[in-house]
Amino acid sequence: MKLLSEVPLGGVCKVLGFAQSGPVKTRVLQMGLVPGTVVEVMRPAPMGDPMSVRFRGMEVSLRRQEASAVRVEMVSPCRGCAGCCGGCTI
Amino acid sequence: MSAVWALAGNPNVGKTSLFNVLTGSRQKVGNWPGVTVERKEGRVRLSRGEAVVVDLPGIYGLGATSVDEQIASQFISQEEVKGVILVLDASCLDRSLYLALQIRERGKPVLCALNMVDLAEKRGIRVDLKALEGALGVRVVPTVARTGQGVEELLRCLEEESLPGGAIQVDYGPELSTSLARLEGFLASYSDKLPVSPQVGAVMAAEGDPRIWALLEDHREQLDQLVRRESLRLEEAMGMDLETALMERRWAMVSSIASRCVTFDPSAKASDSLDDRLDRIFTNRFLGVPLFLLVAWGMFKLTFALGTPLADRLDELFGSLGEWAGGVLQSAGASEIIMSLASDGIIGGIGSVLVFVPHIFILFALISVLEDSGYMARGAFVMDRVMRALGLHGKSFIPMLLGFGCSVPAMMATRILDSPRDRKIALLSIPFISCSARLPVLVLFAGAFFPHAAGNVVFGMYLLGMGVAILSAKLFSGTIFKGEPSQFIMELPPYRLPQPRAVLMSASSRAMAFVRKAGTFILGTVILIWALANLPLGVEYASEESLIGRLGSAIAPLLEPLGFGFWQAGVSLVFGFLAKEVVIGALGTVLGVGEEGLSSVLGGLFSPASALAFMVMTLLYVPCVAAMGALYKESGSLKWALFGAVYSTSVGYLAALLTYRLALAMGL
């Protein structure tokens, strides 16, 4: 288990749950980052923070501190298949 | 009365484009009552009568976790709202479906515009309309808002009397349904207090919607306990708390609908690669920040390089218009005072509102280009680390920078910030940044008292203004707005080519809104100051006997500790409220020398130390009337405007006092 903020660049992971409750959790849940969602870590901002991640076909930026509210596990990257992560490819 | 429709959708789904196509130029931009969130309303012509469409803020859900969501949620549940036009993104249906489910759960009639079908097709994504209509229980009209495709069909549907209504049920599964049933049972005994059915209320409570708690008044504790108990039970049974489980089930339903309605043609390769290449440049470790600074600087330069000549032309025009009106009135035998009221008060006042229009128009055209192209989000992404250290959001950089030109467009530019908290912090800090109107005052005093170090003194004043702005932002984010968290969770939308039509409409509607809202405030103040300078009848303009002169004398003792406790300084500061550069003209008038002779007589009134203090005061004290008008309009409340005025004047006074004492101690 890791926190989303600890996933290396280009790493693909799956959401397990949340390390803390609050507005950050509610917001990412609304955007579709629910347990089971597959997320790819895309790129850091020039100063290392915030970072951007990709899930459900959209790229979302969040601060590292916000990313640390999400508990994830690493999965092997799967690209190009349409069905495995809920319709939109990551 | 025309039917009212709410236009809802996620950010970046083409909602604004659709709003523009639907309403044309018949739109009004303002604020939602009492909050710092933009509200747009427009009229739609139908074959019989017309309808009103209210553009809701772009949202991901109705969970009431942000002001935007609260506004949308409340507005949708209002009785006079006939239905919701919901904009879905065909190129990525998943992300739109969550909001669709939530709105459908509330039971309002919904008409869906499946937007960007052209983009979807290019990416090999096909949406089965019939299946989607069946799954959501609504009419779905495919549209391309940028070209207007499908809009006529959408209008035809708006006219239909009977839209499919009734709420849909999300399958929450056995465990969660038990919890929801318990919540529903609890809420049923308070159904007279709820504006929604206990069933909808139970879902809202499970989401943690604060409005349910607020409505329950004395019974909050019980609801708290119940929610906590159910949350723990679910955590044990399914490994998720109540809120997570609820959202997870909804997203599971979204995925299932999407998998039934969306087919994906793998042979059409996504055009993401261009986006990716652009992102590699714009968010590059070494290039990202310089590129953003270049864009921001270019925006600043363009706004003022194009806007200032136009504003000057307008200023001249109103000057000659005033003279002409004075002449006409004189030949008609009007008294001196009427002539002056017409030319200086009214025409001058209207002029001082309209001179801001070129800057605001150009600025918002440029902002719209940056926002619509998708670059604005990248700029914020790149700058957030630095701006956060100052207690500000990454997007605040552009408004703060514009503050060096003029506070009015800078304050209007805070509209790019999504959270009211970030907007208010920026609004209250911007006036300290030295705008171009303060420069003539600084140059005059620096030149008169420090001829060998004038440049350094002026530069020092700029640094001071920046420093006070940054410290204020830090102070506010750590005190008044401490409880309101700042978030940076935002989508980085795909890059797109901005449309000229949308850009022009955004610019003109904002300029109009400024004239309408801030304009009356500015005009009123100009006339008030005119009256102060000319009354009681028969006094010489702005002399010691006039009301403004008496006001100057009254505040002079207060200015004594700052080193300039004479009525002329008081009067020029009161005049400076009109516009900071007016301080010079006013001093020229009250000293009887005009602006040209000022620097030679200033030495008789000010010492180098009190001149420095006067510069600091002019830099920091109450923002000019136009900036106050903008602050009032943008913050959406008189309370914040008054707070801004009191805060800046206190800071200015203290800083001037400190400067004077320090300068004396240093032997100036």
Describe the structure.
The complex is a heterodimer of chains A (90) and B (668). Chain A is mostly beta strands and 90 residues long. Chain A is built from two helices and six strands; from the N terminus they run ββαβββαβ. A six-stranded antiparallel β-sheet of chain A has the order 1-6-2-3-4-5. Chain A is globular. Mean pLDDT of chain A is 85; it is low at 81-90. Chain B has 668 residues and is an alpha/beta fold. Chain B is 63% helix and 8% strand. Chain B has 29 helices and ten strands. The radius of gyration of chain B is 29 Å and the shape is elongated. Chain B starts with a strand and ends with a helix. The interface between A and B is large, with 42 and 51 residues. β5 (58-62) of chain A pairs antiparallel with β10 of chain B, so a sheet runs across the interface.
Helices, strands, pairings?
The complex is a heterodimer of chains A (about 90) and B (about 675).
Chain A: E1 2-3, E2 12-18, H1 23-30, E3 38-44, E4 51-55, E5 58-62, H2 64-67, E6 70-74
Antiparallel strand pairs in A: 1-6, 2-3, 2-6, 3-4, 4-5
Chain B: E1 3-9, H1 15-23, E2 27-31, E3 38-45, E4 50-55, H2 67-77, E5 81-89, H3 93-106, E6 110-115, H4 117-122, E7 125-127, H5 129-136, E8 139-142, H6 151-159, H7 173-188, H8 198-206, H9 210-216, H10 220-238, H11 242-261, E9 262-264, H12 272-282, H13 288-331, H14 336-354, H15 357-373, H16 375-389, H17 397-402, H18 407-413, H19 420-429, H20 439-449, H21 454-478, E10 490-491, H22 500-534, H23 547-559, H24 567-575, H25 582-590, H26 598-605, H27 608-620, H28 625-635, H29 638-665
Parallel strand pairs in B: 1-4, 1-5, 5-6, 6-8
Antiparallel strand pairs in B: 2-3, 3-4, 7-9
Helix pairs in contact in B: 3-11, 5-11, 7-8, 7-10, 13-14, 13-15, 14-22, 15-18, 15-22, 18-28, 19-21, 20-21, 20-26, 20-27, 22-28, 23-24, 24-25, 27-29, 28-29
